[in-house]
Amino acid sequence: MSQQTRSWNAACIPPQTGRRVVITGANSGIGFETARELARKGAEIILPARSMAKAKDAIDQIRTEIPSAILTPSVLDLASQASVREFAGWFSREYPGPSIDLLINNAGVMAIPGRELTVDGFERQFATNFLGPFALTALLNPHLRQREGSRIVIVSSSVTKWAKMDFGNLQGERRYRPMMQAYSQSKLADLLFALELHRRLTICGSPVSATSAHPGYAITNLQTSGPGSGPSVLRMASSILRPFLSQDAARGALPTLFAAVAPQAISGNYYGPDGFFELKGYPKTVPIPTAAQDPRDAQRLWNEAERLTGITFQI
Ligand SMILES: NC(=O)c1ccc[n+]([C@@H]2O[C@H](COP(=O)([O-])OP(=O)(O)OC[C@H]3O[C@@H](n4cnc5c(N)ncnc54)[C@H](OP(=O)(O)O)[C@@H]3O)[C@@H](O)[C@H]2O)c1
Questions:
Q1: Domain range 16-308, CATH architecture
Q2: Can you say whether the dihedral through the CA atoms of 93, 102, 19, 38 is positive or negative?
Q3: Residue-by-residue DSSP string for 39-51
């Protein structure tokens, strides 16, 4: 384990006063904890959720604990390209010019039992976990402040260790498996995206960095909102092992927070928990799975994302 990251926790977050952060999926789980800790350190948080009520509820909860928190609710459904454009349009009007220090692509859905299509006709996990964040990042990228400390963070998953990109089955058209194909491939796409973003930002000399993180195994709504499916033996094993292998959402947020604000986090690096099998623990640099290491896959995916979303990334 790197000395630099040993026992890194929320108390290590540097002051964030004067920094503006956009976090997706911050009304729940890891995103909520990430928003709360950044707000505690003085960051201004733009908190879009799937409904204004959810965003306001989360804000009320954070304000109960941190009355001085600067939080703005908004609406964003990453499964709808129209909603992504609407949110980005609203953001551009409210916060014109270079106005973001940190964009954290955290929102996600996991293991939807049957193959579902979004309003745009995309498979729901690929759309929510990858295409939506890709489009959002492309549209908000011009608003990133061009200075050291500006970062784009993409939350992936340790399940990418077993994932592979199948460009002939990107959206589960030929074969749909909720967890080990659709979810894992969408999170691998996130990782490929983060790495390609890092390469492109580096080539154009941008001071903005791109990092990625995974939370290990954190108990959140993720396990209940999508699955409930899968072999019952696996579900039983998971419920027995859960107390030993998992951590709470606050701990699960640490790799994301590290990737977002730790001065020692490096663009292009991937952060996860330091414990057994990267399931729990303090943040450390974790190996990038083989399936995410081929830049040709990353470029191909990028081109495909631009084609599907109709948005050209200005980078
Ligand atoms: N928990 C883990 O063990 C684990 C492991 C690996 C990776 N992750 C990743 O960590 C991230 C956060 O997950 P979590 O565990 O904190 O789960 P969570 O508690 O279910 O939070 C997920 C967040 O994403 C939002 N979201 C879902 N669909 C959305 C959409 N179409 N548009 C906008 N927002 C949407 C949810 O909003 P609603 O409240 O409206 O549903 C919620 O705020 C995800 O990217 C997940 O893949 C988690």
A1: 3-Layer(aba) Sandwich (3.40)
A2: positive
A3: HHTT-EEEEEESS
Domain boundaries, the chain: 16-308
Q: What is the pLDDT of residues 134-168, one digit of tens each?
A: 999 999 999 999 999 999 999 999 999 999 999 99
Ligand 1 center–CA 223 separation, angstroms: 9
Whether the pLDDT of residue 192 is over 90: the answer is: yes
| CA neighbor of 158 nearest in space, from 254, 28, 260, 288 | 288
Q: Of 95, 176, 183, 282, which one is the catalytic site residue?
A: 183
- Atom of ligand 1 at shortest distance to CA of 83? 32
Report the pocket of ligand 1 as residue ranges, CB < 6 Å: 24-25, 27-31, 49-50, 54, 76-79, 106-110, 128, 155, 157, 214-215, 217-218, 220-222, 225, 252
Q: Contact 130/304 with Cβ under 8 angstroms?
A: no
Both tokens of 200, joined, read 């492109």
For residue 277, what are its two tokens? 């099998």
Return the closest-CA partner of residue 45 out of 89, 98, 100.
100
pLDDT digits (tens, 9 = 90+) for 262-277: 999 999 999 999 999 9
Distance, in Å, from the CA atom of 160 to the CA atom of 155, rounded to the nearest integer, reads 12
Compute, in angstroms, the gap from residue 32 CA to the centroid of ligand 1: 10
The answer to whether residues 67 and 116 touch, using CB atoms and an 8 Å cutoff, is: no
Distance separating alpha carbons of residues 71 and 50, to the nearest angstrom: 16
User: Which residues are CB-contacts of 234 (< 8 A; sequence separation ≥ 6)?
Assistant: none
